[in-house]
Amino acid sequence: MDTTPIINLSPPANRALLMWNGKQPPPPLAVPSAIEVERCGAGDQLLLHGENLAALAWLLASGYRQRINLIYIDPPFGSGIDRTRRIRLRGPGPVRLIPVADAEYRDTWNDDAYLQFMYERLIALRDLLADDGCIYLHCDFRKAHHLRCLMDEVFGAERMLNEIIWFYPRGGDGERQFNRKHDTILLYARSDRWTFNYDAMLIPYTRRQLARFRHEDERGRYYWNVNPRGERVKTYLRKPGIGAYDVWTIPIDAALARDLGYPTAKPLALLERIVRASSRPGDLVLDCFAGSGTTAVAAQHLERRWIACDANPGAIQVTARRLRQTILERTPLSAGFSIWQIGDAAPAPQGEAHIRVTHHDDQVTVTVETYTSPALVDAVHTLSDWRCVVDDVLIDPAYDSVIFRPTIVDAPVRRSMLVRGAYTIARADVGASMALKIVDVAGGEAFAILSI
Questions:
Q1: Residue 219 and residue 214: Cα distance in Å, rounded?
Q2: What gap in Å lies between CA 229 and CA 235, rounded to an integer?
Q3: Neighbours of 33 (CB within 10 A)
Q4: Do the Cβ atoms of 153 and 18 come closer than 8 Å?
Q5: Where are the beta strands (DSSP E) in 214-287?
Q6: What is the pLDDT at residue 8?
């Protein structure tokens, strides 16, 4: 275990500092307990369920100091809104959305508490970032000015590389001010060297632009001799496109947010651009505000390793589900991941299932007869099929009573489809006990150990 303490920066005397009531250096971080509870396939990716400062302390103590190549965080925006989930039920026919009483995401802060919260986490993240690494911090108009000052203090104003504007041209139309249709992403480096894959970010020339390069010199190089300002100067075709800008037009993926039940889910295209720009295959990517897991999914698609963390059990369930689907679709050698419980992570609400096990010759059949979600009790009574509220059924046929290793994964991709509910397993593949987990659409779950 790494016992090196996290040391607060001592900024130079000429550096501007942001002050708030109660500002103080972060106290020494206590290393929490950590238990591996589930494993999916092979690979060293980590999905950490727990409060993120505790998870960062555990990573620092577990050998990850200065080993993270890329960090992306999408922290609370300080919106003053407590969001309530609207759950999309499964099954054919029209889309059915029902509200869940408990807020899934609380974002009400006073400025002092918010700034101290972010200050402590940014210092821990700085100590995890590799010397050639970068950090992207996603925010909006409410806190962008404060967070830029904090990033200057923690990383140094000279390490600021870009203020990226993510423009998303859709949504409501305000009538009392200009429409707010962008977020801000602050990009900082850890040192004076960093990874930036310039060629991978080039904007390809259009046919019209390429047609301008119609002159050829004595060395066979193509050029055009009038630039956009009308000046006669040779402009050579040296690269296949134009360098990427710091304004990104990427639409919000409303269908993804609706399917996942996460209104704040970011589009995969946004995270893939970040991962592709600032990391290489095999690099390690961290997101400690994982939410719906888009960063981990983007890293998985692009063959990077990843660590994702969230305190919300529903976020862990959604992220795990998306990653299992990615693994089933692509199956790279290092595709697997494990889920760890960090410290006193809040458990998922417990559902209730009735399960029947039958034996026939050399086969065992497991049948889920009913399932009741703790958050959807009233809704279930009006449904003809309990499967409308179930996202996943996972079975470990040889459970060792320590780590849940599901090898049977029933998790339909399309929301119009239902889980099967009955599963036949060869007797030779069944151990002394099996474990079955059901995850419902509202974030509840049931876990059962079945004696054979």
A1: 14
A2: 12
A3: 11
A4: yes
A5: 215-216, 222-226, 232-236, 241-242, 247-249, 284-287
A6: 42
Q: Which residues pair with 258 in a beta bridge?
A: none
- C-alpha–C-alpha distance, residues 78 and 146, integer Å: 11
| Residue 88 in this model has a pLDDT that exceeds 90 | no
SS3 303: coil
Which residues are within 8 A (CB) of 54 and not within 5 positions of it... i.e. 6 or more apart? 30, 32, 342, 343
DSSP three-state, residue 142: coil
Residue 230 corresponds to which tokens in the numbers above? 């009308």
pLDDT at 374: 82
What pLDDT, in 10s, does the model give residues 170-214? 767 778 889 889 999 999 999 999 999 999 999 888 777 776 776
Q: What is the pLDDT of residues 249-275, one digit of tens each?
A: 999 988 888 778 777 899 999 999 999
Two structure tokens written together for 368? 């889920």
Question: What residue has token string 């050698």?
Answer: 333
> Helix, strand, coil: what percent of the chain each, to 5?
25, 35, 45
The residue among 203 and 1 whose pLDDT is bigger is: 203
DSSP per residue, 95-143:
--EEEEEEEEEEE---HHHHHHHHHHHHHHHHHHEEEEEEEEEEE-TTT
pLDDT for 11 equals 56
Give CA–CA dist 111/114, Å, rounded. 5
Q: Are 396 and 434 in contact (CB under 8 A)?
A: yes
**Letter string b/e over residues 347-366, b meaning 16 or more CB atoms within 10 A of that residue's CB:** ebbebebebeeeeeeeebeb
* Token output for 102: 């408990």
Q: How far is CA 11 from the centre of its chain?
A: 32
**Alpha helices in 14-99, H assignment, sequence order:** 52-61
Q: How many residues does the chain have?
A: 452
Among residues 246, 10, 19, the alpha carbon closest in space to that of 146 is found at 19
Q: Read off the pLDDT of each residue in 435-451 and give the average, rounded to a whole number.
A: 93
* Residue 220 burial (CB count, 10 A): 6
